[in-house]
C-alpha cells in the first residue's frame, strides 16, 4: 500500500506539519498546534498514530509532540543534539497560547534508514546548520523530502537562533546537492509553500551561493539553466548542468 503525505497547517497556523499514512496507520512530522486538535483529526479519520518525528527541536516543530506521545503512548523522535532546545521553546509556545514543554520525553533519532510505516522507508539525513540536530526525511519511493527549516522554497533557515551554525548549514546544503535528488522530488519545508528539488535548484539563491555559480550574488538574470546572455558560469557550476 503506497504511503500518502499531507501538509497540514493546524491552528494557530504557523508551521507545515506532515501527516503520513499507510492505510490506517499514521505518523506526524513536526506536530504544531494543540494535541487535542490532532486527536480530533486522527479520530475523525480513524487513524492510529504510530510515532511522531520532528525535524528539529525548535518550539514551532515540537509543540504538540509530547502531548500526543503521551496520549497515544508512542515515541516522539528527535535528534539528541536538539534536546537542549526544548527548554528554549517556552517563550514561543507561550506567545502562541500553546502549553509549554517542561521536560524532554523524546527518543533519540539518529541518521540512517528507517521503516517509518510498514513498507515505507526513509533515509533520515543529518542536516545541521539551522540547529545542531536537524534531520531531514527522504522517501525515495514516494519522491518526498521533508526538510524542516534547513531550506525553504526560495530561502534558507536562520542560523542566529539557538543551535544555529552558518558554516554547518553551508556544508549541509552542499551535501544535499551532492545527494542528487531527482528534480521532481517534492520538497516540504517547515514553513511556506512546498516546491520541487529541481525548482529550488533553479531559483533558490542559497543553493546558488553554495555552489558558487554566482546567481543570487550578482543579480544574474540568466539563471534559467544558466544559458542566458553573457552566462559564462554555465559550465563552471557542477550543480546546474
Ligand atoms: Zn526552526
Ligand atoms: Zn520553524
Structural topology:
Layout (H helix, E strand, L loop, with lengths): L3 E5 L8 E6 L2 E5 L5 H11 L2 E6 L5 H4 L2 H8 L3 E3 L6 H4 L1 H6 L11 E2 L3 E6 L2 E7 L8 E5 L4 E5 L17 H13 L7 E4 L5 E2 H7 L1 H7 L30
Parallel strand pairs: 3-4, 4-5, 5-6, 10-11
Antiparallel strand pairs: 1-2, 2-3, 7-8, 8-9, 9-10, 11-12
Helix pairs in contact: 6-8
Bound molecules: zinc ion (2 copies).
The helix-strand sequence is: EEEHEHHEHHEEEEEHEEHH
CATH class call: Alpha Beta
Structural classification: alpha/beta
Q: The CATH topology is what?
A: Metallo-beta-lactamase, Chain A
**Total helical elements:** 8
The CATH architecture classification is 4-Layer Sandwich
**CATH homologous superfamily assignment:** Ribonuclease Z/Hydroxyacylglutathione hydrolase-like
Per DSSP E runs of 2 or more residues, the count of β-strands stands at 12
- What value does the average pLDDT take? 89
In whole angstroms, how far apart are the ends?
A: 36 Å
Helix content: 10-25%
For the record, the count of structural domains works out to: 1
% residues in beta strands: 15-25%
Major pleated sheet? 6 strands, mixed
Small molecules (ligands, ions, cofactors) in the structure: zinc ion
Shape: globular
Amino acid at each position: 500500500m503506497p504511503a500518502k503525505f499531507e501538509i497540514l497547517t493546524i491552528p494557530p497556523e504557523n508551521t507545515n506539519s506532515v501527516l503520513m499514512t499507510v492505510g490506517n496507520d499514521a505518523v506526524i512530522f513536526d506536530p504544531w498546534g494543540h494535541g487535542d486538535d490532532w486527536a480530533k483529526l486522527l479520530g475523525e479519520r480513524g487513524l492510529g498514530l504510530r510515532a511522531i518525528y520532528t525535524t528539529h527541536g525548535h518550539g514551532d516543530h515540537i509543540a504538540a509532540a509530547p502531548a500526543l506521545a503521551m496520549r497515544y503512548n508512542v515515541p516522539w523522535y528527535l535528534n539528541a543534539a536538539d534536546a537542549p532546545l526544548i527548554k528554549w521553546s517556552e517563550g514561543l509556545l507561550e506567545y502562541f497560547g500553546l502549553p509549554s514543554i517542561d521536560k524532554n520525553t523524546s527518543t533519540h533519532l539518529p541518521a540512517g534508514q528507517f521503516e517509518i510505516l510498514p513498507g515505507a522507508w526513509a533515509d533520515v539525513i543529518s542536516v545541521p546548520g539551522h540547529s545542531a540536530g536537524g534531520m531531514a526525511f527522504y522517501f525515495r519511493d514516494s519522491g518526498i523530502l521533508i526538510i524542516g527549516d534547513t531550506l525553504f522554497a526560495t530561502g534558507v533557515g536562520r542560523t542566529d537562533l539557538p543551535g544555529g551554525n552558518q558554516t554547518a548549514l553551508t556544508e549541509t546544503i552542499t551535501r544535499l546537492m551532492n545527494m542528487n535528488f531527482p528534480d521532481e522530488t517534492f520538497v516540504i519545508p517547515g514553513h511556506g509553500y512546498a516546491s520541487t528539488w529541481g525548482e529550488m535548484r533553479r531559483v533558490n539563491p542559497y543553493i546558488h551561493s553554495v555552489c558558487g555559480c554566482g546567481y543570487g550574488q550578482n543579480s544574474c538574470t540568466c539563471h534559467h539553466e544558466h544559458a542566458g546572455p553573457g552566462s559564462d558560469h554555465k559550465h563552471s557550476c557542477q550543480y546546474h548542468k
